[in-house]
Design a protein that fits this description.
The complex is a heterodimer of chains A (about 180) and B (about 100). Chain A has a 6-stranded antiparallel β-sheet. Chain A has a 6-stranded mixed β-sheet with strand order 11-10-9-8-13-12, with no helix packed on it. Chain A starts with 14 loop residues before the first helix and ends in a 9-residue tail after the last strand. In chain A, a hairpin with a 4-residue loop joins strand 12 and strand 13. Helices cover about 10% and strands about 45% of the residues of chain A. Chain A is mostly beta strands and about 180 residues long. Chain A contains 3 helices and 13 strands. Chain B is an alpha+beta fold and about 100 residues long. Chain B is about 20% helix and about 15% strand. Chain B has a 3-stranded mixed β-sheet with strand order 1-2-3, covered by helices on one side. The chains are: A mainly beta (about 180), B alpha+beta (about 100).
Chain lengths: ~180, ~100
């Protein structure tokens, strides 16, 4: 007798569908105390903590988790489903996901990293590669570009060098300084 | 044993790579804006370098650094990180601003 596979709950989104809608908005770190509190970080500025987040499970896909309490001052969060230290340890170091629509609007010339990754890079109406990473460790953000020959190039994300970011057509127009291509 | 680093600079002039400064001064005269390569990460940023782009070696590659007025007094190596950047998750909602 073949055993029937347990059906996924309705609330669990299908993996393919969820990839289109959900984005990473934060990260959980180590546990704190015995009541299931976790250290956490939220990436987007001015994001109001919603009632529900999603976490990614390898077997079940995206699982919704409900926020029980948040202390932004202390950097602690607790979830209803993981209300003890032992349960909370299962979700340490996981990313928090949220629907794209719930993200706050950004100011002019401000972009989310997921919007920039994958954009085609054009220079003098000629495609030279695409953005593969956005390095934001320093105040001057760097585009990491892979060109058509497979070479990795760096370009500061500043007005002098990045003329236009066209999200609708999925491209970036750059005007790098003389000698950049020879680096 | 002499004093080193910032402590040294209280008594002596800051270290600036002369060859690099010579190239920058030449470009300032002509009004040219071309990337200058350098391996000298310890070179202090001076006011003459503002507005230029200097490609600073990080041990593997040359990282272009656009010099702003706020950077004057710092070392070039501070703006060309040597550790490999592993990247964010693909769908990261971190916000970055074009300066």
């Amino acid at each position: 007798m073949l055993q029937k596979k347990p059906e996924l709950k309705k609330s669990i989104l299908q993996q393919g569908q969820a990839d289109k809608e959900l984005v990473v908005v934060g990260k959980l770190y180590r546990t704190f105390g015995v009541r299931g509190d976790l250290r956490f970080e939220i990436f987007p500025p001015n994001l109001e903590i919603p009632e529900k987040f999603y976490i990614k499970d390898q077997k079940k896909g995206f699982i919704p988790i409900t926020v029980e309490s948040v202390s932004e001052k202390r950097g602690l969060i607790r979830f209803k489903e993981f209300d003890t230290r032992e349960k909370a340890k299962k979700i340490t170091n996981k990313y928090l996901y949220l629907e794209k629509e719930k993200l706050p609007e950004l100011e002019e010339d401000e972009y989310y990293v997921y919007q920039l990754i994958g954009l085609d890079v054009y220079m003098d109406d000629k495609k030279i590669g695409s953005v593969i990473k956005v390095d934001d460790r320093l105040p001057d953000v760097l585009f990491i570009i892979r060109d058509s020959e497979g070479k990795i190039r760096h370009l500061p994300f500043i007005k002098e060098f990045v003329k236009e970011v066209d999200l609708e057509n999925g491209r970036v127009i750059i005007t790098p300084p003389e000698g950049w291509l020879e680096l | 044993m002499g004093f080193k680093g910032k402590w040294n600079e209280r008594f002596k002039n800051p270290y600036v790579n002369e060859k690099l400064l010579k190239k920058i001064r030449k470009m300032n005269e002509t009004g040219e804006r071309k990337i200058v390569k350098t391996w000298d990460r310890a070179c202090t940023i001076t006011e003459e370098m503002v507005g230029h782009t200097i490609a600073v070696y990080n041990g593997q590659k040359f990282i272009p650094v656009y010099i702003r007025p706020e950077m004057v007094g710092h070392k070039l190596g501070e703006f060309s990180l040597t550790r490999t950047f592993r990247g964010h998750p693909d769908k990261s909602a971190k916000a970055v601003k074009k300066k």
